[in-house]
Design brief:
The chain is mostly beta strands. It has a single domain, classed as Pectate Lyase C-like, CATH 2.160.20. The protein is 8% helix and 42% strand. It has a 7-stranded parallel β-sheet, with no helix packed on it. A 7-stranded parallel β-sheet has the order 2-5-8-12-16-20-23, with no helix packed on it. The relative contact order is 0.11.
């Protein structure tokens, strides 16, 4: 089976992916390091054990996607939207999110370290045993909207610390 990364390079002759739509893709044990995605859409895609290190996502939409046991390191997400996405056992380190919306997303057993959320929106997110989700990360001018569907199952004393940086709660 051809790796998704090889498919991308063959079809685009570059690591810059522009205005592509990916439906029902399953990506396992792949290396998407240093790819740049612009104005693209991922719908019902599953990423497992994928390295996204150093990749940039600008104006990218993820709908009904699952990220399981993935590695994000020094990534930039600019003006992106995650809707109904699950992050399971995923590591995000030194990742910058700017003007990103997370709607109906779940972070389960995921580890976030030195992540910056700038002007982001969190709408009905669920945190389940996600280490350091709110500790050692920074939210600037971000909005956290809770509803009856929002679940914060972990006891995280750092929630108030994160919220004090947010404009609205």
């Amino acid at each position: 089976m051809t790796k998704f990364s090889h498919f991308l390079i063959q079809n685009n002759n570059t690591n810059n992916i522009v205005q592509e739509k990916f439906l029902n893709k399953i990506v396992i044990d792949d290396d998407l390091e240093l790819f740049n995605f612009f104005s693209s859409n991922f719908v019902n895609c599953n990423f497992t054990k994928t390295n996204f290190g150093g990749s940039m996502f600008n104006d990218v939409t993820f709908e009904d996607c699952t990220f399981e046991k993935n590695y994000f390191y020094k990534n930039d997400f600019i003006n992106c939207k995650f809707t109904n996405c699950n992050f399971i056992n995923t590591s995000l380190t030194k990742v910058d999110f700017a003007s990103v919306v997370f709607k109906n997303c779940q972070f389960q057993s995921s580890n976030l370290i030195l992540v910056i959320f700038s002007e982001c929106e969190f709408i009905d997110i669920q945190l389940v045993a996600s280490e350091n989700f709110l500790k050692n990360n920074l939210a600037l001018d971000s909005i956290i909207k809770k509803s009856n569907n929002s679940i914060f199952l972990e006891e995280d004393e750092h929630l108030e610390e994160l919220l004090k940086f947010a404009n609205k709660v």
